């Protein structure tokens, strides 16, 4: 924790109170108000946490004005072009880039944990075939608590380590199983001779009836998508994981809570909603109609994949994703993909519109990801599960950081109560 550098003074009804100001290694100073209620009898009020730092962290830094995203200090564009997902996992978990031996050991440990307990297969048969894969993932990941009892004690560093490796390793297997179940195909077991992204593609697209060769272009694109979604500071699902873990809940339950929160269309569900929106727009000539709807206060419609609570100039992940979309679709020979053309024209027209410029709305990570995922053969229902498996390392790294903080206490916000004050019960015959 940083030391106070100056103080902030709050004056209410002529009474002044001083609070320490803490300075970060990067980003805004924070006013430490932990003693506010005890000294003033007042709460702060910040319902969607637009001005609230919920923790201190060393994992990811975002500068919304500069469009900067650093993982342990390394810029996302460098990691996306020079690193690979399991190396980024190591960086997020342990705080430094691994040397060759450390990387080999980490990749070997993850690879050897990719299978799930055979009895977990039975969970899937309890779902309807048309269940959304996210519904399956919430259920199955939460149920991991019932299978992996030897890695649920959050106070045991070794069990925390095993749970971290198990979750990173098994999420692609569970996501692929959820997909296979919904299309009525048999599960495909992971292979230890394949890299992380290739294993996932094979588990999703291989069938027992024929050999499956992973396309290295798709594997590289898949790995880059995993990296671009790995972690993102204190977003809604990560904050959910932190709050769940503050009660001492086991890691599988906490990650299941994160998956549930990510599912919403305002968060990780936006990639599915964005592609469905692009398909609804259909052709570029209908773009003005949808931009008008997005600007209409009386219309709840929003441009999905646009806007961000933190980024106010551009989302650096969207920049990389757009380049990747061009590259992958060209390599796949579908560069004249009408959905990509619509997405690019929509971005162009929206960014030329004063409404979006004034409100600082730009494409976010979800705007182009769906174009690539669909070109790779995934249905829109698999877009958010892929976001969830990518973000598992971020959730786990943030969970681990919080658990290891000796000052951790249960998170328990208060409220501005605007309901009825005390009143006596009235018998039904007198109402
Ligand atoms: C992710 O937090 C993270 O880091 C998340 C994430 C991560 O990696 O974890 O980056 C992943 O969730 C990306 C965001 C994906 N969601 C979408 O693409 C859904 C569409 N976007 C929005 O609903 C919205 O932009 C949010 C949810 C992303 C941000 O919401 P905020 O910060 O609460 O902003 P807001 O809703 O208060 O909007 C501010 C103004 C409003 O207009 P006014 O009321 O001020 O007149 O901008 C307008 C909004 O109506 N606005 C939009 C818009 N987004 C905001 N108008 C049209 N289309 C949009 N997409």
Automatic annotation (TrEMBL):
Pfam families: Citrate_synt (PF00285). GO terms for biological process: tricarboxylic acid cycle. It catalyses: oxaloacetate + acetyl-CoA + H2O = citrate + CoA + H(+). The active site is at residues 308, 366. Pathway: Carbohydrate metabolism; tricarboxylic acid cycle; isocitrate from oxaloacetate: step 1/2. It comes from the Bacteria. GO terms for cellular component: cytoplasm. GO terms for molecular function: citrate synthase activity. The keyword Ubl conjugation does not apply. Keywords: Acyltransferase, Transferase, Tricarboxylic acid cycle. NCBIfam families: cit_synth_I (TIGR01798), PRK05614.1 (NF004126). Belongs to the citrate synthase family. This is Citrate synthase. The lineage of its organism: Bacteria, Pseudomonadati, Pseudomonadota, Alphaproteobacteria, Rhodobacterales.
